[in-house]
Amino acid sequence: MSRFILFLGIHLYSGVMECIKATATLLENSSAKIRKLRAKERSLLPVADASRPGDTVMWIHASSLGESKVVIKFLAALKQKYPQARYVLTAITESGVDYLRRHRDESVDAVTFFPFDTIPSMRAIIRQYAIRRVWIVETEIWPSMLWVCLKNSIPVGVVNGRMEEKSFRLYHVFYCMMSVFFDRMDAVLAQDKAYADRFIAMGVPAARVHIIGNIKSRIMINPPSARQKQSLRTSMGITPADTVITVGCIHPQEAPLIRDAADLLDARGYRWKWIVLPRHIDKSQLILKAMGDTAACVQKMDLSHAGNRCIIEMYGILEDMYMIADVAVLGGTFTAEVGGHNIWEAVQFSVPVFFGPHYYKQQQSYDRVLAAGVGFCVRDAAELAQRLAGTVNNDSDALRKQLSLFRGTMEKDVTPLESYLP
């Protein structure tokens, strides 16, 4: 009975997605919001390179930029275990696809936008690339995708798996249908025990679930040389005397807090250079408005005439901006709706990191950085300004020692990812 309900539910869902696909394609030029769906690109699959042999083609799918970075790390482990395999990489967002395209290598046959989740679209991508295995990153549970994999006996695994309580409750409402998919998953590499337990509760056999930690935290802390750091600063018009505060992945609702902290520090005579990187470039003007009259937007990495509050409208430069920073401030943590972004993108350069109280999506990583004394949680603009001033002026020597100790602990042996692969 549950299989019959699943059949009806999946085909009804697929039909709805087909209508959305047709409507989005028809109206693509009618508004900027619909254009962001990239409907035509999601309907046209690039031609795979069939001239290079490979015994297996694997499809790895992520959501956005952060998950796409996980894909590239995971790809390295897959290549260790399956050196002859070929890969197809997909993502939902433009920034995710762009990152995958810039970091692809000769083992990758195609990088493209994730198709609309319809049964015909999923059959088409699997047939076109002769896909024999699928890996999904974190929480990319797409019913038509899983249904087509199930019907074609294609194994599905989850890497860097997480399942928030809200998602778990939703899946559990449809347990009689969703458990069929979870039961067939042959590997779940979960970030922590809570996530692992939820996957098991949804039907994944316990023997197939492994707790590996957050792949985003599998980094080597590698501070740039003074020459490397200064070279990039100089090319951007930043002088050796400048103190640089990089605010990464900020959302519009967080910009007033950053402005207030900058105003408080300005009033105390600290004329620091604030480099602000929006999480979404199309929100730059909202951030600019909130940052005050002295802020400026630039579309290039030349800040020589941009003043001390610069909003850079470019993707793909986040890690470089953390690398040149004296201090980093993480966006997505001052608003409960977001729940935090990847803290390791800054910590890997041995940069002290400040963030707000809302990091529940990355709890384990943030707690580790807090415990090491190299990350600092602040509640508001006044506390951020106070702690920034203390860090730059008074605590720099002690902080350097803490960062050095933390670097040593991160260099300890970690079980290689490839040892968990089926």
Plain-language structure description:
The protein contains 18 helices and 14 strands. The protein has 422 residues and is of the alpha/beta class. The chain has 2 domains: 216 residues, 3-Deoxy-D-manno-octulosonic-acid transferase, N-terminal domain (Rossmann fold, 3-Layer(aba) Sandwich); 185 residues, Rossmann fold (3-Layer(aba) Sandwich). The strands form 2 sheets. The chain has a 7-stranded parallel beta sheet with strand order 3-2-1-4-5-6-7. Strands 10-11-9-8-12-13-14 form a 7-stranded parallel beta sheet. Helix 1 packs across helix 9 and helix 12 crosses helix 17. The model has no long low-confidence stretch (mean pLDDT 88).
Mean pLDDT value: 88
Given the structure, what is the number of helices? 18
Classified in CATH, the superfamily of the largest domain is 3-Deoxy-D-manno-octulosonic-acid transferase, N-terminal domain
CATH topology of the largest domain: Rossmann fold
Which bin fits the share of residues in helices? 40-55%
- Biggest sheet strand line-up: 3-2-1-4-5-6-7
Shape: globular
Secondary-structure content class: alpha/beta
The whole-angstrom Rg is 23 Å
CATH architecture descriptor text of the largest domain: 3-Layer(aba) Sandwich
Write down the CATH class of the largest domain: Alpha Beta
Distance between the termini: 31 Å
Low-confidence region ranges: none
Largest sheet: 7 strands, parallel
Q: How many distinct domains?
A: 2
- Beta-strand residue percentage: 15-25%
How many E-type strands?
14
Features:
single chain; 422 residues; alpha/beta; Rossmann fold; 2 domains; seven-stranded parallel beta sheet
